[in-house]
Amino acid sequence: TNRDSRAAVEWFRKAAGQGHATAQYNLACHILNGDGVRQSDEEAVRWFREPAEHGYALAQYNLGSLYRDGVGVKQDYREAIRWYRMAAEQGDADSQYNLAKMIVHGMGVKIDYKEAVKWYEKAVEQGMDAAQLNLGIMYFDGMGVKKDIAKAVELYTRAADQGDPGAQFTLASVYEHGPGQIGRNWAMATSLYNMSAQQEWPGRERANAGLARIRSGRVESNIPILVGSKVYLRGLKDKPELNGSPGIVVDTDATFFLIRYIVKLDGGKGSFRVKMENLGRTYQ
């Protein structure tokens, strides 16, 4: 209750004033969320900073997130990286995951896919589903590791089994199209799209679209697929209704490439010649 929260804040504030790190951290959380006390981003930052400077990993993680998002402080990716790294080195999975993401996107640090893989792997060892999904994408695209679609599918599956809707959607797309040595399995794709569509997340409509596509039998096998990227069709002069329309889009939290495929009819035989243009990285 609000009364209990106010009482807790009073006790945390007393202990925090005596230098108790856990109390300082808990007080900062209450202030950040406005739970039993007036909400103040700036005051929360001050209370997170004290235990963070004394090595309290959870405070370091929160301080890193506040610097990353510019909440209560001026946005500073380098400072965010610094705090995430300190907490990550102490084994905090959330910090390991966020540090890896920032390294992949070159936020406050030079892009280094191998280092990103290292931190994703550490978070995966702790069972973090989002890290499993993102590490899977690294394996699927061969970024910082040797390309290994089977390994990617294994990681997607582990995250999907934990209920991650992005992983369920990504794995469904893989089974729908069967890249590499992975055969098509529309029954699995349907089940996974359905699980993803039943959850509240930004990709829910795309999961529903995947379901509709399979159930209607209109799976377009000639559309190039790149899991973890945005794919677009261009130049289909003989099919103007498709010109500029999106292909299969797998736009998860870990999307880090914007790729355009130029697809042209080859000799009027209905086959497709694909040219890929890397338009540069984009942070989602």
Automatic annotation (TrEMBL):
<dbReference type="InterPro" id="IPR006597">
    <property type="entry name" value="Sel1-like"/>
</dbReference>
<dbReference type="InterPro" id="IPR011990">
    <property type="entry name" value="TPR-like_helical_dom_sf"/>
</dbReference>
<dbReference type="Pfam" id="PF08238">
    <property type="entry name" value="Sel1"/>
</dbReference>
<protein>
    <recommendedName>
        <fullName>Sel1 repeat family protein</fullName>
    </recommendedName>
</protein>
<dbReference type="InterPro" id="IPR052945">
    <property type="entry name" value="Mitotic_Regulator"/>
</dbReference>
